[in-house]
């Protein structure tokens, strides 16, 4: 199992340049680059070529651009143009995945309309990304306002999209937050899970959890041992575990300290189930 860092973990106390420096120093294999803020900020004073050269010269590599936000049930032309730009940028950098996040809204949308839009857009993304060798990872979000908010709903959509380069981000927090089905997970094909997000949370009821409730892996209420053992059983074997936290208190810490702590707590949990290869 390879170790990845998601930039949400240092969202308010770091930048891409610092995250790369510290993650490479402390043995992370990959980074998920926040394409909506951290990458544009970096490009204000650096070039894409500089970033590409950094990855060529260092151990750490770019796993994904995270994320195309609100990909379903909105203007298709706008979404496709945004996705094309992300694929072109991702191809330059050598990313493996583009993460796609569903629409979050208080508007009531019929489930059949959500499914129809999501399947259509994922197939369009597949066609665009395939020539570049890039895969599309749908991340369901465990909030009541998200149009795709459980594992079983997201997995069904991916199955209906039926494309080899379309799969899922499995986020432990999002699985827990809306009470996703363990039975559905046990029946799933682990090869359709492209990225594993590791995190934990305070013990609030289903439907009330939000990103800021996340805590270090192993220090919260999620049954991470149960999830990791199940993921291994269904075939998520040699993948990547990416630590993603949005904790306000952690943003008050030194960024390097957060990156070290995130690594240590992640490995403590994951190493009970998977072989890890930290530097």
UniProtKB/TrEMBL annotation:
Residues in Xylose isomerase-like TIM barrel domain copies: 21-257
Gene3D superfamilies the UniProt entry points to: Divalent-metal-dependent TIM barrel enzymes (3.20.20.150)
Enzyme kind, highest EC tier: isomerase
An example molecular function term from Gene Ontology annotations: isomerase activity
InterPro entries: IolE/XylAMocC-like, Xyl_isomerase-like_sf, Xyl_isomerase-like_TIM-brl
Cited SUPFAM superfamilies: Xylose isomerase-like (SSF51658)
Keywords: Isomerase
The keyword Isomerase appears for this protein: yes
Protein name per the record: 2-keto-myo-inositol isomerase
Organism: Halobacillus litoralis
Taxonomic lineage from the root: Bacteria, Bacillati, Bacillota, Bacilli, Bacillales
């Amino acid at each position: 199992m390879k170790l990845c860092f998601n930039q949400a973990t240092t969202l308010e106390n770091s930048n891409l340049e610092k995250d790369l420096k510290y993650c490479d120093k402390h043995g992370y294999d990959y980074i998920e680059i926040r394409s909506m803020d951290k990458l544009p900020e970096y490009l204000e004073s650096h070039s894409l070529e500089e970033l590409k050269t950094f990855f060529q010269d260092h151990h750490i590599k770019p796993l994904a651009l995270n994320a195309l936000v609100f990909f379903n049930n909105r203007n298709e032309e706008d979404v496709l143009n945004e996705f094309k730009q992300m694929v072109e940028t991702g191809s330059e950098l050598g990313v493996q995945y583009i993460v796609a996040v569903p629409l979050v809204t208080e508007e009531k949308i019929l489930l059949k309309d959500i499914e129809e839009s999501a399947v259509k857009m994922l197939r369009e993304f597949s066609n665009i990304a395939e020539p570049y060798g890039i895969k599309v990872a749908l991340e369901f979000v465990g909030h009541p306002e998200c149009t795709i908010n459980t594992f079983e709903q997201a997995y069904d959509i991916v199955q209906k999209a039926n494309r080899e380069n379309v799969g899922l981000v499995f986020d432990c927090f999002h699985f827990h937050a809306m009470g996703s089905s363990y039975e559905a997970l046990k029946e799933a094909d682990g090869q359709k899970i492209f990225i594993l997000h590791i995190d934990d949370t305070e013990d609030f009821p289903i439907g009330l959890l939000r990103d800021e409730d996340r805590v270090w892996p192993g220090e919260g209420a999620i049954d991470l041992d149960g999830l990791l053992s199940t993921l291994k059983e269904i075939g998520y074997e040699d993948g990547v575990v990416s630590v993603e936290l949005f904790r306000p208190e952690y943003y008050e810490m030194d960024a390097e300290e957060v990156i070290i702590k995130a690594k240590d707590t992640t490995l403590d949990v994951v190493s009970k189930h998977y072989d890890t290869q930290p530097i």
